[in-house]
Amino acid sequence: MKKLSLWLAIPLAVVAGLSLQAAFPATNFWPLAFVGVFLLLWSLLGRGIWSSLLVGTVAGAVFWLSLINWLTLYLGPVPWLALGLLQAVFFGLGAVLIGLAINRGPTRWPTRWGRIGLVSIVIAALWTLRESITSVWPYGGFSWGRLAQSQSESPIAHDATWVGTAGLSFIVALTAALVFQTLRERHRPLLVVPILFFVAVLAVPSFTIEIDGTTNVLAVQGNSKAGLFDHGAPGAILQDHVSGTLPYEGDNIDMVVWPENASDIDPLQSKLAALTLSTLSEKMGAPIVTGAITTTDDDQYFNSSLVWNRGLVAQYDKIHPVPFAEYMPNRELWRTFQPDLVDLVTRDYSFGTRSNVVDINGVMAGIAICFDITDDQQAYQMIDGGAQVILAQTNNADFGKTAENLQQLSIARLRAIETGRSVVNISTVGTSAIISPTGATIDSIPAYQPGAMLSAVPLSSTVTPAMALGRLIEWIICAIGIVGLLLILLRRKP
Predict the structure, then answer these.
(1) At the N or C end, where does the chain have fewer CB atoms within 10 A?
(2) Which residues pair with 323 in a beta bridge?
(3) Residue 286 DSSP class
(4) Is residue 214 helix, strand or coil?
(5) What is the pLDDT of residues 381-403, one digit of tens each?
(6) Which of 191, 217, 165, 199 is nearest to 415 (CA)?
(7) For the purposes of burial, counting CB atoms within 10 Å of the CB of 44, is it exposed (0-12), middle (13-18) or buried (19 or more)?
(8) What pTM was estimated for this model as a whole?
(9) Strand 389-394's sheet: what is its strand order?
(10) Quick count: other Cβ atoms within 10 Å of Cβ 298?
(11) CB 390 within 8 A of CB 368
């Protein structure tokens, strides 16, 4: 393979970004993730630092701006451009590091197996390093668009039980890097190396998840007008979910699960809302798990999940509110740039401190509110807390009929596989589904239709290797990338 001119490398980077995006929902053609990585590596071949930054940023901008175009429906083009271009810069910086590995690594490890194997490992580790950093920084990070998330329905998704999200991203990047480095050798028989690696990845047996029993869950999608700019009558969203629940009165139900913001009146402050929930839980003979915005006596606001059984039984407050949506970091600073948009976030939600695992009718449930499901650390906390099932409550009404809800569902599916837990993904408007610990769909509700799912949801206490090792896998991969890059850069010239 030869170095491309910059005028060819840039269009190739555009195609790389588009290929990566198409690997995610709604297109969801997972093989394109490998294609996208490969094309980006090719565009970096022979490039210096500044041209690598340019090429990588172009690929990142195309990828991110197309992946999260649903954000424009919520806050318009400015936040979409700001977040997309910020992530594109990070993508470009990661491309600089990967470019150094591509172009200087073969000199550091001049043997054929060094050029193919070691260089590929460093490339994949650096890709994972960039994802790991942007998943937690800045402002808690944006854990979206990771290679692993494109593989939630691929034949290698089961490997997430062994190596977690970071490990699966590493596998995808390593496969593409092995193909790329092998083709650089111009010896076609060597293509057996990446083929054998991918076959080995496919052949890894699924980790056995022992099922402890089931719990009968009624999950209700009210199809409510629950968006930020929807101005329905107070209590309308609550009534939508009451109406969707009552037809199942008399059925064998262990818990009723409603989405984020399903009670648009705080039952901790409103006697009427509290009475409504208490009466309904008594009728159904089961506790109700509902989302609500709660307030405290000192005027703190929380995005909460409440377990209600003739009264409040348990509460989880969202640990990481979404920056620029649920709170405005550095409000005065950002107001100088875009005051109208900043002031749309009229109140700042506080950071919760309660456990994200609650006891619901004898079942230990991990609670994830909206983007919580993307947070690796919260997944570890759920399993450490003894969660047997994960309830992922979300409100996707602000994003309309876009790919956002499908992308979030794919993340929930991967989280089910990684943790070995069923995930009840319930939204105000969709896409709602109950996912088994293997990633299979147990039940679902069409988007933008009222409906409910009543299913026997498998419970498990099995701790997968990915959960047992936690962030250790990620740290090892990142360390490999850093050490490998240092070895390349610190090599003394003869």
Answers:
(1) C
(2) 327
(3) S
(4) strand
(5) 999 999 999 999 999 888 888 89
(6) 165
(7) buried
(8) 0.95
(9) 357-360, 363-369, 389-394, 422-427, 432-435, 441-445
(10) 6
(11) yes
